[in-house]
Write a structure and sequence with these properties.
Number of domains: 6
Cofactor: Zn(2+)
Protein name: M36 family metallopeptidase
CATH superfamily of the largest domain: Neutral Protease Domain 2
Pfam families: FTP (PF07504), PA (PF02225), Peptidase_M36 (PF02128), Por_Secre_tail (PF18962)
CATH class of the largest domain: Mainly Alpha
Distance between the termini: 62 Å
CATH architecture of the largest domain: Orthogonal Bundle
Strand content: 15-25%
InterPro entries: FTP_domain (IPR011096), Fungal_virulence_M36 (IPR050371), PA_domain (IPR003137), Peptidase_M36 (IPR001842), Peptidase_M4/M1_CTD_sf (IPR027268), Secre_tail (IPR026444)
Largest sheet: 9 strands, mixed
Radius of gyration: 28 Å
GO molecular function, one term: zinc ion binding
């Protein structure tokens, strides 16, 4: 069952006379369990609210509607966090989530969010809902394209406190589709019946095409147990990202003595393991029961001595490697638990455990970690702390990743497109021949629409040219690829080649009902390969190609991609720390939310190795995509502090840049939260390396004191200090507040410079965190923070690309009170170009045209009010 946006949890405290002498009494939620004794932090917070009710805009009636949803104290900095919201007659008021954060001296450090004033009176003036519960339920099902029966819970009435200060009613409908793991919460307007928002509790890492996994393995997996060392795990240990990044080793007694004091196989808080399989207090790792896997419910068994030494053979299938993969997943899930607890994701703040040894927070919510249910996908199912209701447990589910077939498509001749190409075939479509190839000219689809190469229309206007040849169409989201395939077949194509919108390939599959009558094979090529083919076709000379089936390389098990494991686990961290442990179902629900960015940051941070540098290009998911370790990964651009490799800024949000949509799709929904997260992770990654430059790198990820450790602490504490439904600038301000709390504000100037460089400076405007179109990038830092010392250290400006073939972009990172002077000099000191830019133009990004210069080495000298810095630039022919 999908939990409520504000699910009733055992730790939800009600404002009552016992908490505040003589105070009003809260209206209890009808289904809420009895409230336990309130914590001192909760009492203090409610006392603060009562004492400052006037300043907060609250009446006595409003005080009676307050609910404390969670509270805890951080041991590492002494901060006390209390999270509250409002209720009317037992109905949650969405948008009134408030966080109060107190210093160790019990003074208020910060407040996030806002209460609504006179809400009970406003509610009394609202008419009865024009749309009933059943109609709302049907509207939710229709919105999700689900069958009209059997998939939704009864609708629940909630209130919405809107940004303009008014109150509205909505129905909250929880939907679990019959197929797949999704668990949706849909808000339906109680006045109009329109679906306002749909949120999936399951946070998916779906690279646009994924399906249920149906392996063809011959039989049960036999564990390859090789007893060697007690309490040992053969894994790709931290900081290795995958088997491609180094050899497996035996990790012996890896449990952290503080975070997991009784080891990784304990659940009762007493000496001795309760399980010899990959199960314990923090996680249970297994193949899903009921999924189409060879051995449902399998979990590797280490025996009485906990000897988990299983071989990984890259030449075998993912299923044959399940014991090793599940062991690796067990190690990494526990590692993420232990490390995150060191940085403040504790039992009190809502971490994932069967038993909370401290007695704080809620137990019963260890992570169910699984491999094998899906193809080419991973996801995290998030729940509130202790919210282990029926069919609603925190889960990490990782997929099996199919590799593309090598040398499937061959272009004859010596032209610019000649050669062989890898491709991903349609898994349950017509197979490619293995002996006699399909041969013909490549012909680009023209369906007569405004996007003719999409091939979405059923009747193609160039059917005569397509007939008997191989059709080529673009893979976009105007229609499903089944429609493209039907169009190609109707046009008489012998086969269809789809050009992916990204430079990686994953498993593609059709609903079996859609395969009836299909006689045309389909394969997909990467965006880069497709552009090469289309360029050759546009040149006018016929491009003759052939398609021939080949033997697929062994598929890859998601349990070996440590970066993806860390990414998925991080979703659990961010959803529980933002807005308090009860906020896991609501507080990262807005459109300008950065959940995917935080997860990518955890992935990169956990797999950083000594000797790495910030300018190195880092791809996400290179192992499961079958790429080299230097591959581009699953994001449109790699992560790097080098703006020539990753120039993303806050200005990208809401827009399409370099054919990547960072805004809305054609239906008015965020196109891809991963692209929004890409911008956020880019600035966090910059911050990490700026802190490493200042404090050094410490390979001790648990208790080290390096810049990387300090950055993780800032990120973790920033999650706690930001409001429910944060935008980019909310989260920036929370990191600044965390620096003041953790390090006395020692890094304020550095943090501002890093964020300003990516457009999140002091003059940036966020607007609504639920709107991708009302933000404005700004590249200024607050007055007084830009210093000559900072400029001389290399943090003052960026020049990219370098080397360049003629066009160079200069972007100033700090503020300047005077125009920016730029001189381009030869190596002998001769000025060959001179420019003057306003400070605003230089911070937004000024262009230098160097096409007239002879190729070679030059010096670019930049002078601002903060100082002068010179850098070398190579101009290529």
């Amino acid at each position: 069952m999908l939990p409520n946006f504000r699910a009733a949890l055992p730790y939800r405290f009600l404002l009552c006379a016992a908490l505040l002498a003589g105070g009003p009494t809260a209206v209890a939620q009808p289904t809420a369990p009895a409230a336990p004794t309130a914590s001192p932090d909760a009492v203090r917070a409610l006392g603060y609210v009562r004492a400052h009710a006037g300043a907060l805009g609250l009446s006595d009636a409003d005080l009676s509607d307050l609910v404390v949803t969670g509270s805890y104290t951080d041991a590492h900095n002494g901060l006390r966090h209390v999270f509250l919201s409002q209720r009317i007659n037992g109905h949650d008021v969405l948008g009134t989530e408030v966080g109060l954060h107190f210093s160790p001296t019990q003074t208020l450090l910060s407040r996030t969010g806002s209460f609504g004033k006179d809400l009970r009176a406003a509610a009394s003036r609202l008419p009865q809902p024009a749309v009933g519960a059943e109609a709302a339920r049907n509207a939710a099902l229709q919105h999700l394209h689900q069958a009209a029966t059997g998939t939704a819970q009864p609708a629940e009435l909630v209130y919405r406190f809107l940004p303009n200060g008014t109150l509205a009613q909505a129905w909250q409908v929880r939907v679990r589709p019959a197929q797949g793991p999704d668990a949706w919460t849909v808000l339906v307007d109680a006045a109009t019946g329109r679906a306002l928002k749909a949120r999936n509790q399951v946070i998916r890492e779906n690279p646009k095409q994924a399906s249920r996994f149906q392996p063809a393995g011959p039989g049960p997996v036999t564990p390859l147990l090789q007893p060697t060392v007690a309490n040992g795990y053969r894994v790709y240990a931290s900081p290795l990202e995958s088997p491609l990044h180094g050899a497996s080793t035996l990790a012996v007694n890896p449990a952290d003595a503080v975070a997991s004091p009784f080891g990784w196989h304990d659940t009762n808080g007493a000496t001795g393991a309760e399980y010899t399989t990959a199960r314990g207090n923090n996680t249970h790792v297994y193949t899903p029961v009921g999924a189409h896997v060879v051995t449902p419910g399998f979990s590797p068994d280490g025996g009485a001595n906990l000897e988990f030494d299983f071989a990984h053979n890259a030449a075998l299938s993912a299923q044959d490697n399940q014991p090793a993969a599940l062991t690796n997943l067990f190690y990494w899930t526990n590692l993420m638990h232990d490390l995150s607890q060191r940085y403040g994701f504790t039992e009190a703040s809502g971490n994932f455990q069967a038993t909370n040894y401290s007695g704080q927070g809620q137990g019963g919510d260890y992570i169910r970690s699984q491999v094998g249910e899906v193809y080419s996908e991973g996801y995290f199912n998030t729940t509130p702390d202790g919210g282990a209701t029926t069919n609603s447990y925190p889960e990490i589910v990782l997929g099996i990743w199919q590799m593309a077939l090598p040398n499937v498509l061959t272009v004859a001749g010596t032209g610019p497109a000649a050669g062989s190409y890898s491709a991903m075939p349609l898994a349950n479509g017509r197979p490619l021949p293995r002996t006699t190839p399909i041969t013909g000219a490549l012909v680009l689809a023209n369906d007569g629409s405004t996007t003719p190469s999409s091939g979405c229309q059923p009747a193609w206007v160039n059917a005569a040219q397509v007939r008997g040849n191989i059709a080529v169409a673009d893979f976009d989201y105007d229609c499903d690829f089944i429609e493209k395939l039907r169009g190609a077949q109707a046009a008489g194509a012998r086969a269809l080649v789809l050009v992916h919108s990204l430079d990686f390939l994953t498993h593609i599959e059709l609903d079996p009902a859609d395969t009836v009558g299909l006689r045309v094979p389909l394969v997909m090529v990467t965006h880069a390969d497709g552009q090469r083919l289309k360029a050759a076709m546009r040149a006018g000379t016929p491009v003759t190609a052939s398609l021939l089936g080949t033997t697929a390389p062994p598929d890859r098990n998601g349990g070996f991609d440590n970066g993806i494991i860390a990414h998925e686990y991080a979703h659990g961290i961010t959803t529980r720390l933002t807005g308090g442990p009860a906020g896991a179902t609501a507080c990262l629900d807005n459109e300008e939310q950065m959940g995917e960015g935080w997860s990518d940051f955890f992935e990169l941070w956990m797999t950083t190795r000594p000797g790495d540098v910030g300018t190195t290009a880092r791809g996400i998911g290179t192992y499961v995509l079958g790429q080299a370790t230097t591959g581009p990964g699953i994001r449109p651009v790699p992560y790097s502090t080098d703006m020539a490799l990753n120039a993303t800024t806050y200005a990208y949000i809401g827009h399409t840049v370099n054919n990547v949509n960072y805004g809305y799709d054609d239906f008015g929904y965020p196109y891809d939260s991963h692209y929004i997260g890409l911008v956020w992770c880019s600035v966090l990654w910059d911050l990490n390396w700026a802190m490493i430059q200042r404090y050094g790198y410490d390979a001790n990820l648990s208790t080290g004191t390096g810049g990387n450790n300090k950055t993780m602490q800032l990120v973790m504490d920033g999650l706690k200090l930001q409001p429910c439904s944060p935008g980019f600038l909310d989260a920036r301000d929370a990191i600044l507040a965390a620096d003041r709390a953790d390090f006395g504000g020692a890094n304020q100037a550095l943090i501002w410079q890093v964020f300003a460089r990516r457009g999140m400076g002091s003059n940036a405007v966020q607007g609504s965190s639920d709107d991708l179109l009302d933000n404005t990038a700004g590249f200024l830092t607050p007055t007084g923070l830009a210093t000559a010392e900072a400029l001389a250290a290399g943090a003052g400006f960026d020049l990219y690309p370098n080397p360049t073939r003629g066009q160079l972009t200069l972007r100033l990172a700090g503020a300047s009170t005077a125009p920016v002077q730029v001189a381009v000099q030869s190596v002998l000191g001769q000025v060959v170009q001179a420019h003057t830019f306003t400070a605003a133009a230089a911070m937004a990004g000024a262009t230098l045209d160097l096409h007239a210069l002879t190729p070679g080495l030059y010096l670019v000298r930049v002078t601002t009010s903060a100082g002068t810095l010179t850098r070398r630039v190579v101009v290529q022919p």
